[in-house]
Amino acid sequence: MLTLFKKIWNTLKRPSVHISLGVLTLGGFVAGVIFWGGFNTALEVTNTEKFCIGCHEMQNNVYQELQETIHWSNRSGVRATCPDCHVPHNWTDKIARKMQASKEVWGKVFGTIDTREKFLEKRLELAQHEWSRFSANGSLECRNCHDYNSMNWDVMSDKARRFMKPAAERNQSCIDCHKGIAHHLPEQMTFKDPALDQLEQRAQGLSPDEGSNYYTVKAVTLYLDPELTQEAGELEAASPVKLLEENGDSVKLLVPAWRKTRGFGRVLYEDFGMNITSLVLEKEVAQNEELVQLVSEARVDEMTGLPWEQVEVALWTQSGALLPEAEDLWGYARDTYRSACSVCHSQPAEAHFDANTWPGMFAGMVGFTNMDADTQALVLKYLQKHSSDYSDGAH
Amino acid sequence: MHKTSPTPVHSRRREWLTFLLITAVFFPLLSVMAVGGYGFIVWMLQIVFGPPGHGA
């Protein structure tokens, strides 16, 4: 190897004997022009949609999804191709991205996502790579076409303007709100927040005492028997419970609740007159008076005219989901609420609405966030339990 | 040519061959490696310092 390098070096440093300086320079010049032209042509070829969908991974997954969106066909006839959004236009970043593609070649060779199932499983991770890239560069590739300064607020719909104008004022990154506009969103969206994961692990490690009061750290399935074979219902996260009995890996929980004396009474709530869901029971369980024991007679909620009765339910569930206090859960929910909602607007104070207004408000907005189902339930409960009904001095 | 070449035709051909090899293979290969290496270094820097930010 070393001798080869020496030979090459010796050849290079020796002056030419037969070929004139002019010919050498001309030769180098022409070759340089041809090389650079060729290099750019090759680079451009790898920057075409045809090249991208040359791999069935792209052709069968993301390319099909793109065809359902406005970036594929629209009234003005301008469309975005793969590289418009996914390859940086700046030369250095483009070259770096092309080198990164070596990883994609690796994936192609070893079939990392060669089936739809494998792709779906990886989608979240792949999407997160693109999202973090867009977040870092302020959605630069979007803005090569879409420019805040060129937006005509007068022709924009009222709804769009309400969100776009403040976004323009803050020069907000497009991807903050517009995830999943050109391809499907990851189905699960369960990149579980490490903070919540930590709480769950703490609950897992805790050995609770019989007769003490706890809060559920996550939603759990309830069963009729300690062997956990007959499902009875679903208990929400952050619900106050009392531990009655332990049996191996199972625990029997006593859940205090209220319910409306209408219908099958399957949905149980945390408090009188408050639509804060605590647990949802199977129909047979909800109607069984031995399982759902009446604590006090029904009284009428003046607001709705519906009678509510206080009940208690004792059922089994898997151990390891209890925390002695709810403060950490609320802390997590508070942080999530503040960060997820403030992306698009300043979030209202928790006590700005009452417990029965929050669900509708929350349901209308949560679609703009990427909270997973567990977190959504927890945040909603946090908002309800810290609403004007539960705080002093708020309106 | 009024002077006879001191070197044989063999070495003249050899020099042309070397010249072509250098211009058509050696330097293009070196250039691609340099650009690729540059891209690779930028990629590695992006892994350490995060993806590229606003503007140039």
Which key phrases capture this entry?
heterodimer, A: 395 residues, alpha+beta, six-stranded antiparallel beta sheet, four-stranded antiparallel beta sheet, 14 helices, 18% strand, B: 56 residues, mainly alpha, 0% strand
Number of discrete helical segments of chain A? 14
Q: What would you report as the Rg of chain B, rounded to the nearest angstrom?
A: 22 Å
What oligomeric state do the depicted chains represent?
A: heterodimer
Which ranges of chain A are low-confidence, i.e. pLDDT below 50, for 5 or more consecutive residues? none
Main sheet attributes: strand count, strand direction, barrel closure of chain A? 6 strands, antiparallel
The pair of chains with the biggest contact is: A-B, 29 and 29 residues
Tell me, briefly, the overall form of chain A. elongated
Number of continuous helical runs of chain B: 1
Give the overall pLDDT of chain B as a whole number: 82
Shape of chain B: rod-shaped
Q: Are there runs of chain B of 5+ residues with pLDDT below 50, and where?
A: none
Fraction of residues in β-strands of chain A: 15-25%
What can you tell me about this protein's structure?
The complex is a heterodimer of chains A (395) and B (56). With 395 residues, chain A is α+β, with helices and mostly antiparallel strands. Chain A contains 14 helices and 10 strands. In chain A, α12 crosses α14. The radius of gyration of chain A is 31 Å and the shape is elongated. The N and C termini of chain A lie far apart (82 Å). The mean pLDDT of chain A is 88. Classes of the chains: A alpha+beta (395), B mainly alpha (56). At the A-B interface, α1, α2, α6 and α7 of A face α1 of B.
